[in-house]
């Protein structure tokens, strides 16, 4: 099951408590319906639970019963013109002069009603990406003017919905994880919001582990490369018979580096008797490398 439908499952389990919120939720469904015209109202979804909840909402709020049609997708349809006119009238529209659907703010004057309106919008046309993959939530609608008017009223919400035009309509969207969490909590999908937060914590932890592993690997790689370069320089000096002419400290360093080619500088320091400092050892190895290069250039 997709994450979007997991959210729908949670929202459809919410109990309906206030008639004003029922009206707002039904209004949100209509605003994002596939078709809302004088000759037909059609709501299409792959989620059976939402379609049945929507039918019960409209029956309770308006007193009109939609027909449920099953197929590749579930559909909620209304074709009777008198029933359509009743729905239009209830939500402040006129079937005779209905050209553009404007947003009627009086349905969402209370904060609980605004949450219910957005709940209906998500149930009808919402998509939320799996948080394990990306952060994206959108609400699609063919009604651009309606959405622009709605955004003016929604400007005081804790999340900022943005409007974008697409090929077959418009969408409101969120891309920041924190804002998606706020949106889901606001409309009543607190379990989904919690799952998103947990997934974000897991991803952050995994990224930190990966960065640390990459850093440790890079450090090991640099240590190995440096040790190989130092060993090669010492072997070149030995092949040319030049080690025996070096000071005792450098000869001792060369012997220990050859004996322990895989150790880091810090580990190599402990092999001396008495132990030497890391800066001292680093200076000696640099000197050996420089001598090998210097002799090659002569």
Question: Could you give a quick summary of the protein structure above?
Answer:
The chain contains eleven helices and eight strands. The termini are far apart. It has about 300 residues and is α+β, with helices and mostly antiparallel strands.
Can you tell me about this structure?
This protein has 298 residues and is an alpha+beta fold. It has two domains: 3-188, Endonuclease I-creI, CATH 3.10.28.10; 213-297, no CATH class. It is 57% helix and 11% strand. The strands form two sheets. A four-stranded antiparallel beta sheet has the order 1-2-4-3. Strands 5-6-8-7 form a four-stranded antiparallel beta sheet. The N and C termini lie far apart (73 Å). The model has no long low-confidence stretch (mean pLDDT 87).
Q: How are the strands of the largest sheet arranged?
A: 1-2-4-3
CATH top-level class of the largest domain: Alpha Beta
Elements, N to C (H/E): HHEEHEEHHEEHEEHHHHH
Helix vs. strand class = alpha+beta
Number of individual domains: 2
Helix content: 55-70%
Largest sheet: 4 strands, antiparallel
Regarding quaternary structure, how should these chains be classified? Answer: single chain
Can you count the beta strands?
8
- Total helices: the number is 11
Q: Judging by the overall fold, what is the CATH architecture of the largest domain?
A: Roll
Judging from the principal axes of the Cα atoms, what is the shape? Answer: rod-shaped
Terminal-residue CA separation: 73 Å
CATH superfamily of the largest domain: Homing endonucleases
Ranges where pLDDT stays below 50 over 5 or more residues in a row are none
Averaged pLDDT, please? 87
């Amino acid at each position: 099951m997709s994450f979007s439908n997991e959210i729908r499952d949670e929202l459809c389990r919410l109990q309906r408590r206030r008639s004003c919120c029922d009206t707002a939720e039904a209004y949100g469904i209509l605003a994002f319906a596939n078709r809302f015209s004088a000759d037909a109202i059609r709501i299409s979804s792959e989620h059976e639970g939402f379609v049945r909840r929507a039918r019960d909402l409209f029956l309770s709020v308006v007193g009109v019963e939609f027909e449920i049609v099953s197929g590749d997708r579930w559909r909620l349809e209304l074709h009777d013109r008198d029933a359509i006119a009743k729905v239009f009238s209830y939500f402040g529209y006129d079937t005779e002069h209905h050209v553009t659907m404007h947003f009627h703010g009086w349905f969402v004057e209370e904060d609980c009603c605004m949450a219910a309106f957005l709940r209906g919008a998500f149930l009808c046309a919402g998509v939320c990406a799996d948080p394990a993959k990306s952060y994206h939530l959108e609400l699609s609608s063919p009604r651009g003017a309606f959405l622009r008017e709605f955004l003016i009223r929604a400007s005081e919400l804790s999340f900022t919905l943005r409007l974008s035009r697409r090929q077959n309509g418009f969408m409101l969207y969120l891309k920041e994880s924190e804002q998606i969490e706020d949106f889901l909590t606001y409309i009543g999908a607190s379990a989904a919001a919690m799952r998103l937060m947990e997934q974000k914590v897991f991803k952050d932890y995994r990224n930190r582990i990966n960065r640390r592993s990459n850093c440790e690997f890079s450090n090991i790689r640099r240590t190995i490369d440096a040790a190989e370069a130092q060993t090669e320089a010492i072997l070149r000096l030995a092949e040319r018979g030049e080690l025996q002419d070096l000071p005792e400290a450098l000869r001792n360093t060369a012997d220990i580096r050859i004996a322990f080619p895989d150790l880091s500088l810090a580990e190599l320091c402990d092999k001396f008797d008495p132990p030497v400092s890391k800066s001292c050892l680093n200076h000696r190895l640099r000197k050996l490398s420089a001598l090998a290069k210097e002799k090659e250039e002569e």
